[in-house]
């Protein structure tokens, strides 16, 4: 039976470290780091995510401000709010919760966020720096997975890692980080996607599989080499009448059948999700230190 990677516990430990760091900053006369979030519309999952981020900021002593905008907010209104926040020297990090309602141009929105406040690490400037291995804000989910692997002491050097999904926020940066040179990386990476024929051919050879496609229970036991490390990024809301909310969160891995043959596995919920938020906090603290040191 696989070792379960307890993302929640690892995230809590790191949050404790961040809280100590923030307290130290304040003691030294700096202000607490400040994260701004923009939420457009009332998508249930997005509202939940923003709520979690707000709570996490509070837990570690970060200031947070959430700008809640109407669903029918225009592109111009959204961009001018972003520019206003860009110019506010008391705000260190800015995230715009995605996806945005139809009619708003996500890439333009991302491009408008000042690169030095882009704590989601989605701006082309930060993406480019990451690609070159230069210090940058790493996208929160891949950054969180890198931390999970490191904290769980999982050897990556020379391992074959198969990533399923090529999104700009998970799959592609993940491939970049794991194939980079150095400790905690040095993987040989195969990036699979919806046009990959015979996906099983690749996954069966993988030492590490990162499933990030958003199809519940997609990765089944017959696709996994015994002893592989399984990282489940997927979060899909599936109907569950036994829950008060009427749904539960389902990962991309058929957990019950894959766990017995894997060496390590992340659960959903409680695996990658909590680490994503921790990475956002880390990026915000880093952004704040850079900003406040400039003065
Ligand atoms: P996306 O929808 O942007 O992209 C999905 C990718 O999966 C695409 O690149 C596509 O090519 C690939 N894909 C689709 N069907 C496939 C198939 N049958 N075989 C192989 N590849 C296939 O996805 P995303 O934004 O990266 O999110 C993926 C999942 O991860 C979603 O469930 C999302 O909710 C979840 N997610 C979780 C976190 C977290 O913090 N845990 C963060 C981001 C995303």
Account of the 3D structure:
- With 295 residues, the protein is α/β, with parallel strands linked by helices.
- It contains 10 helices and 11 strands.
- The protein has helices at 7-27, 44-60, 75-86, 106-112, 124-132, 140-151, 171-179, 199-203, 255-258, 272-293; strands spanning 3-4, 34-40, 63-69, 93-96, 160-164, 188-192, 208-211, 229-232, 236-239, 247-250, 264-265.
- The strands form 3 sheets. Strands 1-11-8-7-5-6 form a 6-stranded parallel beta sheet. A 3-stranded parallel beta sheet has the order 3-2-4, sandwiched between helices.
- Strand 5, helix 7 and strand 6 (188-192) form a beta-alpha-beta unit.
- Helix 6 packs across helix 7 and helix 6 (140-151) crosses helix 10.
- The radius of gyration is 19 Å and the shape is globular.
- The protein starts with a strand and ends with a helix.
- The model has no long low-confidence stretch (mean pLDDT 97).
- The structure holds nicotinamide-adenine-dinucleotide.
- Nicotinamide-adenine-dinucleotide binds next to helix 10.
